[in-house]
Automatic annotation (TrEMBL):
<dbReference type="GO" id="GO:0005524">
    <property type="term" value="F:ATP binding"/>
</dbReference>
<keyword id="KW-0813">Transport</keyword>
<dbReference type="InterPro" id="IPR017871">
    <property type="entry name" value="ABC_transporter-like_CS"/>
</dbReference>
<dbReference type="InterPro" id="IPR003439">
    <property type="entry name" value="ABC_transporter-like_ATP-bd"/>
</dbReference>
<dbReference type="InterPro" id="IPR052156">
    <property type="entry name" value="BCAA_Transport_ATP-bd_LivF"/>
</dbReference>
<comment type="similarity">
    <text>Belongs to the ABC transporter superfamily.</text>
</comment>
<dbReference type="GO" id="GO:0015807">
    <property type="term" value="P:L-amino acid transport"/>
</dbReference>
<dbReference type="Pfam" id="PF00005">
    <property type="entry name" value="ABC_tran"/>
</dbReference>
<protein>
    <submittedName>
        <fullName>Branched-chain amino acid transport system ATP-binding protein</fullName>
    </submittedName>
</protein>
<keyword id="KW-0029">Amino-acid transport</keyword>
<dbReference type="InterPro" id="IPR003593">
    <property type="entry name" value="AAA+_ATPase"/>
</dbReference>
<keyword id="KW-0067">ATP-binding</keyword>
<dbReference type="GO" id="GO:0015658">
    <property type="term" value="F:branched-chain amino acid transmembrane transporter activity"/>
</dbReference>
<feature type="domain" description="ABC transporter">
    <location>
        <begin position="2"/>
        <end position="233"/>
    </location>
</feature>
<dbReference type="GO" id="GO:0016887">
    <property type="term" value="F:ATP hydrolysis activity"/>
</dbReference>
<dbReference type="InterPro" id="IPR027417">
    <property type="entry name" value="P-loop_NTPase"/>
</dbReference>
<keyword id="KW-0547">Nucleotide-binding</keyword>
């Protein structure tokens, strides 16, 4: 279980997150929605160890992970897929996927590759294709697949639908839902609040770096304030 416990964090003198607390259980899909600049990406960066937390604590399975370096957080199997995907463009799909397994023994890698190809059959078909020639949606699948190759227990997705058509957005969000069925906790940050809430077990609404609402995804999707502020209804 991932527990973010009253953290504050920011950039230089700028404090962005204020006493922010969230929780994600194993096998749970949790969304964080909120306006541009609410601090969603900053929260993921703090969990990944890319920025420091100033107060509060982040724990994974009861052990403190705040204060660890990013590669140490990855070794605890808490893995983030960044918004810009960070693929190695000139390399093939398969090479990008195998790179995700850098923490692991080669013998296990083939099994994981097969699991990624089960989840995203298009990547199997295209495994020899150069990554940068794939569509945005397919590149997002490669980025998620690469994160899965590191055998995450907690997978964090930062705006996976950026630049994708509605159909591909559903493909990617449905993949996130399928991943949580395997017991992995998924923390999803999305601008597409309506779609994200509809597939989430639970969700949080972030405003100015603090949680202002939380509840089951479908319940929040029906909340009057959420509908007005984030769903344009
Ligand atoms: P978006 O959907 O726009 O990414 P967000 O909720 O993810 O929104 P953040 O990216 O976490 O928001 O940004 C929160 C605030 O932190 C914003 O005011 C942003 O300008 C600021 N910020 C983000 N990155 C930096 C940085 N590297 N240096 C200084 N300020 C930053």
């Amino acid at each position: 279980m991932l527990e973010v416990d009253k953290i504050t964090a920011g950039y230089g003198k700028l404090q962005i997150l204020h006493d922010l607390s969230i929780r994600v259980d194993a096998g749970e899909l949790v969304s964080v929605v909120g306006a541009n600049g609410a601090g969603k990406s900053t929260m993921l960066r703090a969990i990944s160890g890319l920025i420091e937390t100033r107060t509060g604590e982040i724990r994974y399975d009861g052990e403190k992970i705040s204060g660890l370096r990013p590669h140490q957080v990855v070794r605890r199997r808490v893995i983030q897929v960044s918004e810009d995907r960070d693929l190695f463009g000139p390399m093939t799909v398969e090479q990008n996927l195998v790179l995700g397994a850098w923490t692991r023994k080669r013998a296990e890698v083939d099994d994981d590759l097969a699991r990624v190809f089960d989840l995203f059959p298009i990547l199997k078909e295209r495994r020899k294709q150069i990554a940068q020639t794939m569509s945005g949606g397919q590149q997002q699948m490669v980025a998620i697949g690469r994160a899965l190759m590191a055998q995450p227990q907690m997978l964090m997705l930062d705006e996976p639908s950026t630049g994708l058509s509605p159909k591909l957005t559903w493909d990617v969000l449905n993949a996130a839902a399928a991943i949580r069925e395997t017991g992995i906790g998924v923390l999803l940050v999305e601008q597409n609040a309506a779609q994200a809430l509809s597939i989430s077990d639970r969700a949080y609404v972030l405003e100015s770096g603090s949680v202002v609402l939380e509840g089951p995804g479908r319940e929040l999707a029906g909340d009057e304030r959420v509908r007005k502020a984030y769903l344009g209804l």
